User: What shape does this take?
Amino acid sequence: MSRTVPQWLAPNSLEEALTLRAQYGDEATVVAGGTFIGIVMNQKIMQPQTLLSLRNVSELAFIEAGQDEGSPLRIGAMTTHRAVERSSLIRQHWPVLASTFALVASPRVRNQATVGGVLADADYASDPPTLLQALNATVLARSEKGEREIPVEQLITGYYETSLRPDELLVEVRIPRNRERAVYRKFRSRSSEDRPCVAVAAARVDGKLRVVVGAVAEKPQYFPDICALADGETTGNAQMLAAEIGRRYAEAIDPLSDSRGSAEYRKRIIAVEVRRALEEMLS
Amino acid sequence: MSNPRVTGAIRYAQDVEFDGMLYASILRSPYPHARVLKVDASAVPKSVVVLTLDDIRELGSYGCQIKDQTVLAIERARFVGDPVAAVAAPTKREADEALDLIDVEYEPLPGVFDAVEAVAEGAPLVHEHHAISDNDAAYFGIRPQEGTNICHRFRIRHGNIDEGFEQADVVVEETYRTPSAQHVPMEPHASVARWVDDRLEVWTGTQTPFNLRMDLAGIFSIPESQIRVISPPMGGAFGAKTFVRTEAIAACLARKANRPVKIVLSRYEEWLTLNRHPATIQVKLGAQADGTLVAKRVVCWVDTGAYADCGPGVAQKMGYAAVGPYRIPHVWVDSHCIYTNLPPNGAYRGYGAMQAVWASERTMDLLAAKLGMDPLEIRLKNVLVDGDQFCTGEVMHDVHFIECLHDIAEKIGWAENKQGKGLCVLMKGMQTPSRASIVVEANEDGSYTVYCATAEMGQGAWLSIRKMAAELLGVEVEKVHYPEPDTDIIPYDTRTTSSRSTYMMGRALVEAVRDLKRKGEIGYGECVNTGGLDPDTGQGVASTHWHQGAAAAEVSVDEETGKFQVLKLHAAIYAGHVVNRPGAELQNEGSMIMGLGTTLFEQITFEEGQPTNANLSDYNIPAAGDLPESFTSELLEREGADVHGLGETALPPIPPAIGNALYSLGIHLTDLPLSAEAVLQAIDAREQAKGGRS
Assistant: This one.
């Protein structure tokens, strides 16, 4: 493969970006903040011929929430992690979102990495997708032909794989307003700036418990039937319930091994961290 | 005053530019061990200069202690990353593209990736012969074992080991492993070479300009005086920037191109250039019932990778460092420097001391536990004091281990409670023998210039030497200039390693200023330390100046996950007399942070010789958030005392202090790093032993 510098496409508007996306399809690799593409290109894991940069598409950098009760939080795909972390709107109404984005890598990375990028990369060891899936978030995918809303659950399909079509761009993330407590626990086995060894997000959405475990398999793991154990439970045996759900999650997941921990170790940590997340949520 | 390192005004080797300069890239073996059958560069465009075997076959081989390396791998590539060809082109991009056009045919050979396996019967030989180098870095008796992968065997025979163990009431025995690690200097290796009328000029970030010049002279068969090495300030080195790294390839390309050539390594290539020695160390320690040490037997297997580099020296220092700062009448040490098919391992801050101290100081706590003694008491009872004899036969003077131990015990609150707390004490030798020389010149404007080989790698050596000079000359430090070391101008110095510069060069400086005052315009001074050890008995003088320190840690463990927090970390270093306090404190902190990385997660992983985490995403180094809440160090001084080197001393005691803190909770670990997973396994083992959880 040639080592020549790839062609750099840098549209100035979403419209222009969608035209180029339709034109190039998979021939062009979409770049947002570049923290992921930069690493894989440096390591020569990926050597794209053409890069489609959304850097100048400023209309995709926004954080908005409608006034009425039912309206979701909308975050533009080019919003940086740092902007989410520091947004007073998010800190006030979705504090778990702000604190989770603040756990990603270091400020240098967070100033660069974007909300759209971290979802579209579908890297198994990222923090935000796990939480976003637990919060029942959706993404808006747009193409020249139109748009569709995809739940995060259906967006990430495998290692670095999404259900985005070659002419689509992920333009926005929508997070339902959630008045109940949500928890994100990042278990790091190494440095404080490392990716999670096991990530656990737990939330109650529309009265239903959603526990999602990330960084342990090709995509975030969610088991509605296990979560259903919590239906109608009173807080009386909350501790036992938390431990039971943790145990069941550990049984249900077939974890991977990597430099952050073996599969066997991860299984044990899943049981502990799911239990702790639920205890924290109920406390 | 703005710091040029902060503003970007500083000029590193990679910033050196010349008209018509070419940029080099290196083609490296993808196999850990392979015959190189063919290198075909015919498809490379004429605008690119290519260096292949035919260009270097006639050149001399090199190596600072064993002459085992050629500029490119001739016939056999011995590690993943071994250079087999190199190119130079007008741009780095063209150079990289040209690499893809070179066709290399390999025949893979069986490799060996572990030092213990490499000495087993029938292991593949990495080198057939071990020629001892004529470089002055081969300063001690090197004992290669022909027909094996052992390129140096160092022994200590002190007292009678069998009798010693007979006198012991209690004996403990354990085997420890420490992995390879990367230095990760912010600035990667970089050099620029050019030939001017048959003279070779090299700008390179190097800690060893004179050793480098010697090896380059041997490669090109020219006198040393025909080579000029200039060492600009470095962005960190930690031992990685020693001896020949990129310079020989740059010089060969420059000669062939007849133009200056620059090499700057990528982060990935750093992992293929020089790492820390993995080591397996077996320790057997015996004591009488009252805690008096009587016998110690140590065997070290030191993995030097595919080329010896300074591995023999590292193995030797590891050998005597593993004895520890104790009075032990019967000592028996065998330390082997062993070839494997991994990238070369060399100097790394501490130079074998970390591996040795980990094994030695963990064993002290095993012994204390078996005797039912306080780990502080057993150390205080046995540490060397002035007038004691070390296992090398040398009589110790100016030793301060007891002070260091008292300081750390107080700071960690040892008297109140010992749960979750651990201690470590260490001694570390300084390069012996060695020589430092310096010239001080008075300028017409009332300022002075020092000509000195001591390299600036961010440790603040230039400022320390300027400060000492200013004090001796009675002028402001701004009046003392320190041009970057240039072997055409500076007098000889052994090298900027082993925390020797402030001490050795400081002493030479005193002489030089005295000489200047006598002569008026220019003064010369030198400091020589003599000694050395018999490699077969370990008797002699290991070091004329001992680096001494201790550290204490306090941890809190999450028993369900094995993840632990270091709550407190404190190091006490004997400094004698501090020259530049902020610089010295930063040296301590930097050493402690590197020690923390080594303890917690630093580890290069290989799969059949292929590095699997050669990037800063998969390989973690400590971040600010990893530092303990309480992170302190002490520089112990004494009225009228000598300056003591302190650039590395606070690194080696960190892993054992933390390991011993875990041990106080019944968590026994022998291998670094202390990953959460390993801790959890050790907790399981403890519970199993108790008959508790399975």
